[in-house]
């Protein structure tokens, strides 16, 4: 071998090593970034005075108590108390250091109402009784088709109490096209909405039986939700528990959610979201998305879920996007999650299609990358314990699996991959070697089996009704 040939041979040997080393460094950086991903929890200075209990007997200063009963509310569950709430709100909003009180032991029938700010600083909304919505869809105010109790433009406000917000949704669910396909598909009200607000805390309330979504946090910043219970029947359609849209710096902590749709759903223009100590079930899991519908742009980033228990839900940790969309989902960490009898415990679905008709194949997609699953254990109700159904043209990248143990009580579990690549660290069951494959259609990896069963692309078109 002459000298030139020998040098060329050495170069051919070294180049792959350098490439592999760079890949390793890049992967290491991704893992380190996700490992250190933190969501700022903010400081409680804004709420320090608000947290004095009881609020209106605080030794640190008197509160102006505004009781809805003092404005003509009867609280018998039959008489319309809407105007009493409106009048009480008008006074409390303009009065510094005030408390809007819904007394315990009574049921207040309230129709669709907008509670507008801005209000005087450090407002407290104390709900100890039950607020109930009219149960007849035909009698609903047509000027407010999607909102029941809506709070707007609030700053440094505390919602608290042991009371209940009850949407009386049974007749709305019966009229849904998802219950009866002969009915027209139309939206229904959300029980509680906090919109265009900042520095808001919601603590201790129960939100139940909403007409559609139970609780929406929209276009807001610095919202903390703690010790909240959200409840709706398993067969109630579109009753997402807590829905976050266009919001930043949101914390959900110590919440118990059981609904007929996503326990938590996080959609476009949301970032810096932390969920801790979350119970989900029944429901459709803890979801990012859907994103990208009707060729729209969807962006969600910096989401952390720590310490969660999901029981009997139809999905576990889910990211769902429509074909034809754009944008990205990135910097997501799921950590210390226990599953019990959950279908699709880990699922990324870039072929989401919540439509009575089949969705057309499209090449553009919302990019999904830097997603970490760490310490996820439990039992899968379905054969596919992990499913990464990603776009051929916009593959999922940097999916990190670290200490995964998902089993099935009555059979084997497997991992399905299509156009997904990632990093495997520690014990991972079922095997997820398909993540390291470079093939576009990576097939299915079955636990305890050596063969790879390829899957046709049409099998990854999903419809959820």
From TrEMBL:
Its main location: secreted. Gene3D superfamilies: Single-stranded right-handed beta-helix, Pectin lyase-like (2.160.20.10). The keyword Secreted applies. It comes from the Eukaryota. One of its GO terms (molecular function) is polygalacturonase activity. SUPFAM superfamilies: Pectin lyase-like. Residues 1-20 form the signal peptide. PROSITE patterns: POLYGALACTURONASE. The active site is at residue 284. GO terms for biological process: cell wall organization. InterPro entries: Glyco_hydro_28, Pectin_lyas_fold, Pectin_lyase_fold/virulence. Its EC number is 3.2.1.15. The keyword tRNA-binding does not apply. It catalyses: (1,4-alpha-D-galacturonosyl)n+m + H2O = (1,4-alpha-D-galacturonosyl)n + (1,4-alpha-D-galacturonosyl)m. Belongs to the glycosyl hydrolase 28 family. This is endo-polygalacturonase.
